[in-house]
Design brief:
This protein is an alpha+beta fold. The protein is built from 36 helices and 26 strands. The chain binds adenosine-5'-triphosphate (ATP).
Length: about 950
């Protein structure tokens, strides 16, 4: 980081204003506003547009983007490539130049493929940023609106509230906030910044009335004027983003890398063991033995595997983003597939977060707010005034223009319908102070001054939180009546009966402050001795698509636990409506959870009950995530507030809400839902399972060719040379390079198998490469391919009159037949590999059930493979290099059924497996 951070002194540092004038952000606010040619009411939209054109978008340019030469070099120098280089060196040293050149060609082709795939993966991940535009609230044309942060310009008046990432350098105009500036200064403790804290002669970053891009507001609210954007900001000047984000290796890639190494090691050992075997048993010259050892080594090093996995994960990430789930780490895709518990909140995720007040209950009775009619009721009017004053939302001019918390928007709309202007300034109340809402207190209050000079506290919040702070209630005549125990009881019953209907209930209260009394300094002082004005109940309809998503969860063996800040009965009603709870759920409130021991919590989470954690705090979320992880579950957890960040980090998949969530929650999460929708989580789990399955499919495919590749060399060696070598090393290399990558890539795009969401989640401990998979690859499909390839070889040779031990070398009468026979082995390998590709498409179900031709990419891959094989067999220049010979129609006819035999044999194996294990998943392939 630059020295600017700590040493810049006021007066020394200045910022170039949009007009080109150097301005000092710490000068008096009015001077600063003048220099910025702005005002407390912000800019006009037209002026902001003009400035945007002049200063450019509020973005940081990354430096040092030209990384690709390094990336390309890395493809040639990673350990598996080095192994191949060693093989090249060996071949060169013993004088077999064509093989050395061939291996270099293999290395180059592999590196090129891997490079292209990784670049594509990188692009897919970088494109995700477009799905998550950062928004900021600014004043334009005198009203509050949400804009993309890239559109911020100097002079804009910015609203900053809890959880916002500050996206430009700004001077506070009013309010006070806690700021986490660790990204900029490295200080881990939040610092307080307020408009009225003016410092002189301190470093710019330490000035207590300035906030900087890249820092985060963790508490409070403020209004600020932007004085620097984009590369002009302190963050831009430090250009901390000069290096791009490093991609960490996912557990899956790690596992596969380890296995790849294991295989490489086995190949080296096999190669080394082959040399004495071939020289002593088969009487081969040392030189030839080295040639074969090198061939075996090159054939079996699975160097193409990792890039294919990376690309498959990246494609998964891109698909998820299109469906509304933006994943920030590639590895999240595989974790999603293993998720077995989803802890979800209610508001906005299960419901639409479109609140509408339906009922108000005051001392004068219950009012149905859905019926529009003029009402003249003092209590109701006071209730409406309190709902408007203690409110941070704005209704805007038309429908859909409202900004702010949906609960507060609903209250403003209701107050407006009750005849109270929908904004506190028009109402004639000026806010002196705010004790903001937080999900631990579950209430908020404001200190407001009326036009007549009187000062009042207005408060609203969860009834359990606010009612204990009320000592009286406003009656029909506007007089305060003490709240008796009986009345409290009646109110509690009223809250329960409204909550049971799935309504969200808030209590609203007020307190007048005497002129002589000192105004309250803390929320505790403000929110006491309150007078209850009434209860307001609002409807937040469940999202229609959630029902199907919840059913999908249940069939997929995924448990859904609701953790909500809302009332237990409200949550239970909504849970029943969307099908999460099928029996009477166990509802645990925040205070009950606080009293619960770790063991009791573990036992509760271990049971089968439908669970709802109500009135819970962010700490409760963290505790639940911890307990679930400790007991071996893979947990996905949603969250949206600043305080949810630790729980989001602790869960295996932290899920933040793109629309309603704070920037802090988004940053702490692994996945962001752009539509805040529970159904999207399930779509993501399904995609995660599919990607993981597909990765297993192509690992199987790539492993399956080891047996048929080794067999010809073994046959040759074990026959003691009586059988000529059925495949030359160059032919092996040609097969290896030409056939592996494209069908493997295509397998990464397979549609999901039927029954994908009917099987239980895979266990956290399960390895992507399992014993049964290796058995199927090496000993079942591999052996069948090997037998078929050898059958073709002997068919051609024996038909030409060959007897074991007869010479087949150049100049011998059988030489042409031998060349045709090795070409047959080559064709046999290709044909077997085509059958393997089809077999790899499903792990359990029949190929018919997913559609034989349903993966067009695979068909293209196979067409390419066949065209390459035809060129190798029939084009004279390639014949000359690879010692192949043209095959006759009867030979082609002999190999034609190979793919069907391989695939058919595996089809029978799968059928037997399904019969053996009992159930056959049914249904059509799912759309994803
Ligand atoms: P979920 O956790 O499922 O999203 P929630 O939105 O109800 O549920 P919180 O936002 O933590 O959770 O709210 C908890 C409670 O606080 C609410 O049930 C409501 O009673 C009260 N509350 C919510 N918003 C406000 C607000 N703006 N002002 C005052 N009280 C509020």
């Amino acid at each position: 980081m630059s020295d600017d951070i700590g040493n810049g002194a006021v007066g020394v540092e200045s910022v170039e204003a949009e007009s080109g004038v150097r301005l000092d952000p710490t000068e008096q606010v009015d001077l600063l506003l003048r220099d910025l040619r702005s005002a407390r009411s912000g800019l006009t939209a037209r002026e902001a547009r003009r400035r945007l054109e002049h200063v450019g978008p509020n973005q940081l340019h990354r430096r040092g983007r030209r990384q690709w030469p390094r990336e390309l070099i890395r493809q040639f120098t990673h350990p598996l490539a080095l192994l191949l280089w060693a093989a090249t060196g060996l071949a060169w040293a013993v004088g077999i130049v064509p093989i050395a050149i061939a291996i270099v060609v293999v290395i180059v082709i592999n590196a090129a493929f891997a490079f292209v795939q990784e670049q594509q993966a990188e692009k897919a991940v970088e494109a995700l940023a477009a799905y998550l535009p950062m928004r900021a609230s600014v004043l334009r044309d005198g009203s509050v609106c949400d804009v993309d942060v890239a559109q911020l310009v100097p002079g804009d008046v910015l609203f900053i509230s809890e959880g916002d990432r500050i996206s430009a350098d700004a001077r506070l105009l009013d309010g006070g906030i806690e700021v986490d500036a660790s990204a900029l200064t490295g200080e881990s403790m939040p610092v307080f910044r307020a408009a009225d804290l003016v410092d002189h002669q301190v470093p710019l970053l330490h000035a207590r009335d300035l906030v900087f891009s890249g820092t985060v507001c963790t508490e409070g609210e403020a209004r600020a004027v932007v004085f620097a954007t984009g590369m002009q900001t302190e963050l831009g000047r430090i250009a901390a983003l000069s290096e791009r984000v490093e991609r960490e290796e996912s557990p899956l890639e790690h596992q596969v890398r380890r296995v790849a190494w294991l295989i490489a090691l086995v190949s080296v050992l096999l190669g080394v063991a082959f040399i004495p075997l071939a020289t002593l048993a088969a009487g081969l010259s040392f030189l030839n033995a080295v040639v074969f050892a090198v061939g075996l080594l090159v054939g079996n090093v699975p160097e193409g595997l990792l890039p294919v996995i990376t690309l498959a994960l990246a494609i998964g990430v891109r698909e998820l983003a299109r469906r509304g789930a933006v994943v920030k780490r590639l590895s999240a895709v595989e974790t999603l597939g293993a998720t077995d518990v989803i802890c979800t909140d209610k508001t906005g995720t299960l419901t639409e977060n479109r609140m509408r007040c339906t009922v108000a209950a005051t001392s004068t009775g219950i009012v149905d707010l859905t019926i529009e009619q003029p009402r003249s009721d003092t209590t109701l009017t006071r209730l409406a005034i309190a709902m408007t004053a203690c409110n941070n939302a704005h209704l805007g001019s038309g429908e859909g223009d409202a900004v702010g918390d949906p609960t507060e928007i609903a209250m403003l709309a209701t107050a407006a319908a009750l005849g109270v202007p929908g904004d506190s300034e028009a109402l004639g109340w000026r806010r002196l102070r705010q004790f903001h809402f937080d999900s631990a207190r579950k209430r908020m209050s404001t200190l407001d001054q009326g036009s007549g000079g009187c000062v009042r506290v207005h408060a609203k919040g969860a009834p359990e939180s606010l009612l204990p702070r009320c000592s009286s209630e406003l009656d029909a005549d506007g007089a305060r009546q003490p709240l008796t125990a009986a009345r409290r009881h009646a109110l509690a019953d009223q809250v329960d009966s409204l909550a049971r209907r799935g309504l969200r209930v808030l209590a609203v209260a007020e307190r007048g402050i005497d002129d002589s009394a000192t105004p309250p300094q803390s929320s505790d002082q403000a929110e006491r001795e309150l007078t209850l004005l009434g209860l307001v109940a609002m409807l937040d309809p469940p999202r229609p698509e959630v029902v199907a998503a919840v059913t999908a969860c249940h069939t997929a063996g995924i448990r859904v636990i609701i953790i909500t800040g809302d009332h237990g009965l409200t949550a239970a009603a909504v849970a029943a409506q969307v099908g999460i709870t099928r029996t009477e759920p166990t509802v645990v409130t925040g205070s009950q959870l606080d009293r619960m021991s770790e063991d009791d919590l573990d036992a509760l989470l271990d049971g089968d009950d439908d669970l709802i954690f109500a009135r819970s705090s962010p700490e409760a979320k963290l505790r639940i995530a911890d307990a679930l992880r400790e007991t071996g579950h893979v947990v996905a957890m949603t969250g949206d507030g600043v305080n949810d960040a630790p729980a989001l980090r602790r869960a295996d998949v932290g899920i933040a809400m793109g629309r309603s969530g704070t920037d802090v929650a988004r940053e702490a999460s692994t996945m962001v839902l752009t539509d805040d929708n529970f159904a999207t989580i399930i779509a993501a789990v399904r995609a995660g399972r599919r990607v993981y399955d597909n990765i297993r499919k192509f690992i199987f495919y790539i492993f399956a060719h080891a047996t048929p590749e080794i067999t010809p060399f073994m046959v040759f060696a074990l026959s003691g040379g009586a059988i000529p070598l059925p495949l030359t090393v160059l032919q092996l290399l040609a097969f290896d390079v030409g056939t592996e990558t494209l069908p493997a890539l295509a397998l990464g795009r397979e549609p999901s198998e039927p029954g994908l969401m009917r099987k239980p989640p895979r266990s956290r401990a399960e390895s992507v490469i399992s014993g049964p998979m290796l058995l199927r690859a090496w000993l079942f499909v591999g052996v069948i391919c090997a037998v078929l390839a050898m059958a073709g070889f002997f068919y051609v040779l024996v038909r030409a009159g060959w007897q074991p031990g007869e010479p087949t070398g150049p100049g011998e009468p059988l030489h042409h037949a031998y060349q045709q026979a090795t070409t047959m082995t080559f064709l046999g390998l290709v044909a077997g590999q085509i059958g393997t590709a089809f077999a790899a498409r499903t792990e359990r179900v029949s190929l018919r059930s997913i559609g034989v031709l349903s993966n067009p990419l695979l068909l293209w891959g196979i067409a390419f493979e066949l065209a390459l094989a035809a060129a190798i067999i029939y084009l004279p220049p390639l014949q000359a290099v690879l010692s192949t010979a043209a095959l006759t129609p009867d030979m082609l006819a002999f190999a034609a059924p190979y793919p069907v035999i391989v695939w058919g044999a595996d089809e029978i194996r799968r059928w037997a497996l399904r019969r053996h294990t009992g159930h056959e998943p049914m249904g059509a392939p799912s759309a994803d």
